[in-house]
Amino acid sequence: MKLQVNFFGGLKAEINGIIIDLDMLLGKQLSSLFALLIYKHGKVVTKETLYAYLWQDSDNPANALKYAIFRLRNALKEIDEFKDIEFIITVKNGYHFNNDIEIVFDYELFKQAVEEAKETNDLDDYQKALNYYEGDFLALIENDWIYLERAHYKISMINLAEMMCNRCLELQAYNLCLDTCKFALRYDDFNEELIYCYIKALIETKQYNEALKYYDSASKRLNKELGVNLQSKTNSLFSIFSSKETNNNTKTDIDTFSSSLYDKKDLHGPMYCEYEIFKMITEYEIRDCIRNHNNKYLVFINFVNDNYNLDELINIVAKSLRIDDVYTKVSNSQIAILCSLRQVSDAYIVGERIISKYYHRVDSNARLMYNVKLLTEAKLFEGHEKGSLFVVK
């Protein structure tokens, strides 16, 4: 007889065209035991191995294993398609899966397809390999022996998706690239290579608003969860985006164009933006300062110990600045603010006001430092190179 066993997405068996959901029929403990015996097909699984993998916290693992094998055999017999099949063979020091049963494994088919795709670099072969990945390895079973295998196959799938997406971009197969990115990002939404490919494909298919929205959400996710910014490769897509927008042949009128320049009609408080946008705004402001002899100041607020709450600091900044001020998150413990002020003392007032509010409203044990810089100067003001530490007693 020939049996196909699928591990991706959950434990399932297919025999004579009938698919059997073993996770549902066996339950978590018996599914874990059965999956381990199948995965070690062709080998004897010793009792000691089973104790270590499945009953490491049991006071009597020998009895637990014996009873579980008894239950598993009975549960398999209750499945109509399996009632005449002896799956588990008892040997001197353990058990093994019946070697007379011919088994096809989806993870073996996946590995073979991955190697073939790497060799041919063909989109159809990439897709064939990804089609085997119907979910994480034994997704419904939580057990130590499974975690390492699950991570191994997930990494292999993500690497394959990266290669496929880059190949799609080379061949201008942008819609396939989008579909592949969506699929793989469900399993690793912090993967920058996939994020880059997804945004690039959106831009190439003229989905500009979607590209900007996804860039913004990905930036915030990486900042919040990992404390990092998107790499320069991804940030460089903004220049590509600008180029695509400029080359857009769709004509419009000035009213439509002007209304499309901003989404928020009700504007209150300062403007928050991602770091890369902040850099662009700063470049514009420097030019404006040089031309019109204006004073723009950069206020850089930094937590100097590990006791910090950046979200609360951002809330205070948002309520402390004016409508023409701009601020951004630089890292998990730093904020930069761009202010229009008459003189440097006003910039120090801004910094001290924000820090004072944080100490009083959030945490008086935190320690914050701020630096002030005139936007058109090459260095910090003399006497303030190290900033000032403002502490409320």
> What proportion strand?
15-25%
The helix tally amounts to 15
Q: What overall form do the CA principal axes indicate?
A: elongated
- Report mean pLDDT, rounded to a whole number: 85
Which structural class fits the helix and strand makeup?
A: alpha+beta
CATH homologous superfamily caption of the domain at 1-151: Winged helix-like DNA-binding domain superfamily/Winged helix DNA-binding domain
Largest sheet: 6 strands, mixed
| First-residue to last-residue Cα separation | 80 Å
Question: What gyration radius follows from the Cα positions, in whole Å?
Answer: 30 Å
CATH architecture of the domain at 1-151: Orthogonal Bundle
Q: What is the number of beta strands?
A: 13
SSE order, one letter for each helix or strand: EEEHEHHEEEHHHHHHHHHEHEHEEHEE
